[in-house]
Design a protein that fits this description.
Layout lengths: L19 H15 E8 L2 E6 L4 H14 L4 E7 L2 E7 L5 H14 L3
Antiparallel strand pairs: 1-2, 2-4, 3-4
C-alpha cells in the first residue's frame, strides 16, 4: 500500500485537499510523540494505546477528523495507565485504516 494520501484518502472526505497533508502531519506527530502500542483488532478496527498526556490533543484531533470523515468511529477511554483509542471504519474504508496503521507503525515511540 502506498503512503501517498492521494491513493487512499476517500472522496467522501470533506477536508479540503490542501489541508489533508497538514492533518496527516498532526496524526504523524501524535504517533511519534504519544503512541505506545498498536493492535489490529479486526480488518476494520485498530486499537492504539497512547501516553495519557496526549488526551486533549487526541480528543481534538479525532473530533476534527470525524467531522470531515464521518465514516470513522473513535472511542477514547482510560486503560491501565494509558489512553486507549479504538478506531473503526466500515469495510469500504479498510484501505484508510491500513494506511493509518502503516503510518503509526513507522512513527511509534519505543
Amino acid at each position: 500500500m502506498s503512503n501517498d494520501p492521494q491513493t487512499w484518502v476517500p472522496e467522501s472526505c470533506t477536508l479540503p485537499s490542501a489541508q489533508q497533508p497538514l492533518r496527516l502531519a498532526e496524526f504523524d506527530d501524535l504517533f511519534a510523540t504519544a503512541l505506545l502500542q498498536q493492535e489490529r483488532l479486526s480488518p476494520t478496527a485498530l486499537r492504539w494505546r497512547l501516553d495519557p498526556a496526549a488526551e486533549a490533543t487526541t480528543r481534538d484531533l479525532t473530533a476534527r477528523e470525524s467531522s470531515c470523515c464521518s465514516f470513522f468511529s473513535f472511542t477514547i477511554a482510560a486503560d491501565a495507565g494509558a489512553l486507549r483509542l479504538d478506531v473503526q471504519v466500515p469495510a469500504a474504508h479498510v484501505a484508510v485504516l491500513d494506511a493509518l496503521a502503516l503510518r503509526a507503525a513507522a512513527r511509534m515511540t519505543a
